[in-house]
Amino acid sequence: MLRLKLAVAATALLAGAAFASPTAPKNGAEYTTLKTPQPVQAEGKKVEVIEFFMYHCPACYALEPAMLAWVKKQGDGIVFRRIHLPLTGENDPEAHMFLTLEALKLEESLHAKLLTTWHVERRRLKSDADNIDWAVKNGVDKDKYVAAYNSFSVIAKLKSAGRVAGTYEVNSTPTLIVNGRYLTNPSMVDASNPGIPRPQLDQATLQVLDALVAMSRK
């Protein structure tokens, strides 16, 4: 009986250690430090947090509710922004859609609807025509959308999106960059903390994010 109790206690201790690790993440495990720090768009004591994502990415969709709650909790302490990883290169239609809505200052208001389209309605927006049709059906003026879609600034950003991702050493989504210096994502947290149940992985990732934001403030 004593041996059984000790075995149970040891198992509980190991489990506790696994779940405690995201609160004290280690470089090279739960996160990495970028070889070349990138400039940030945050001023003063605010910390910039970037989410690299893709509209079609199931893991991005799964993270979204917890991510939004985390951002709201930070208040004015952070500057949060998204960058769409261009999966298919310079003509990636998803990234093109994102950059167009961003240029029109509609990305934030339509982000949830786009995710719903992909992951709840299971509609695939895989072409320019799909994107334009979706935008118009969701209340965007067609002429303004097309003008922004074909604008020099949007096309230039689209063509450089892959290079931008490369400077941040991003090759998968969702990936989070803190203060232009630290990179983490659910896959890293999962690999470094075997045994975390999938429903708790997103919260563990946000614990790592908390620690990286605190490090950045120091």
From TrEMBL:
InterPro entries on file: DsbA/DsbL, Thiol_disulfide_DsbA, Thioredoxin-like_fold, Thioredoxin-like_sf, Thioredoxin_domain
GO CC annotations on file: periplasmic space
Domain of life: Bacteria
Cystine crosslinks: 57-60
Subcellular location: Periplasm
PROSITE patterns membership: THIOREDOXIN_2
Domain Thioredoxin: 10-214
Pfam families, per database record: Thioredoxin_4 (PF13462)
Keywords carried by this UniProt record: Disulfide bond, Periplasm, Signal
Main location per the UniProt record: periplasm
UniProt record similarity statement: Belongs to the thioredoxin family.
This protein's name: Thiol:disulfide interchange protein
